[in-house]
Amino acid sequence: MAATTVQPTSPTPRRHIAVIPCRWGASRFPGKPLALLGDKPLLWHVHQRCLEAKRLDGAVVATDDERIEAACRQLGIEYIRTGEHLTGTDRVAEVAERLEAEAYINVQGDEPFISPTAIDAISEALEHLPPGALAVNAYTELLDVGAVLDHNVVKVVIASQGEALMFSRQPIPYPKGDRPKYLRQLGLYGFTGPALQCFRQLQQGPLERAEGVEMLRFVEHGHAVRMIPVLDEGVPVDTPEDLARAESLLVP
After folding, report:
1. In angstroms, rounded to a whole number, what is the distance separating the alpha carbons of residues 130 and 135?
2. Contact present, 226 and 252 (Cβ < 8 Å)
3. Closest residue by Cα to residue 56 from 22, 20, 29, 90
4. Tell me: the pLDDT tens digits for 72-95?
5. Of 4, 90, 16, nearest to 53 (Cα)?
6. DSSP-derived secondary structure for 113-162
7. Quick one: pLDDT at residue 101?
8. Is 76 exposed, middle or buried (0-12, 13-18, 19+ CB in 10 A)?
9. Which helix (H) or strand (E) holds 220?
């Protein structure tokens, strides 16, 4: 299927682009991308944050659902209709096969308040990837105990060199001998095209299947994921209750 867009796309390769994977059938919140936040669907808010980033050459929604496709047409948002995929990153990898760019930034479609500065930080980090690293992933410190315990919030532990050691929905590390600092993995990843193709060729391992955290695919197969600290106070929307919280944060 050819790439489908609702606005002209430059024939020249783009530098860095944001890809927002959106699917209808989220188990915790079906139809989440089109849930209204204020008077606009959730995916519109994420797309706006991407447009506010200074280092990108555009943002595109990637979806396999005709309802999301129709909403993008109505809102004037560039989109690509993809096949069905196991994860959002697999979906971004299909986009990379059909839309040429130097690098791709996966911005999760449930982060309506994601910081444009954080997106730019991932873009910049992609230009300085250390040898062996196939991806960059943003993180921020968790200060709320409830968020540490929330299985919808993915935690990460990081090696001294800045690479991810493990991701989990459980609070890690366990505070047996010391009081640790808890870090939240943001739904904000950066890849080159070859790295995305490598991702698609790797099999899901037992950790990724158990945790439902796609960056574990690289970790399980011995590939480095570079973690980038960012400042972000956004509210990810995993459940209808999160959407109500996000509504209270909208600027009138």
Report:
1. 10
2. no
3. 20
4. 999 999 999 999 999 999 999 999
5. 16
6. T--HHHHHHHHHHHTTPPTTEEEEEEEEE---HHHHH-TTSPEEEE-TTS
7. 94
8. exposed
9. helix 216-220
Q: Are strands 14-22 and 40-41 parallel, antiparallel or unpaired?
A: unpaired
CA distance 252 to 246: 13
Condensed to tens digits (0 to 9), the pLDDT of residues 11-23 reads: 556 799 999 999 9
Residue with tokens 């050459």: 57
Q: How far apart are CA 33 and CA 237, in angstroms?
A: 10
- Structural tokens at position 247: 């509504």
What is the C-alpha to C-alpha distance for residues 57 and 108, in angstroms, rounded to an integer?
A: 18
CA distance 248 to 252: 10
Could you give the 3-state DSSP secondary structure of residue 67?
A: helix
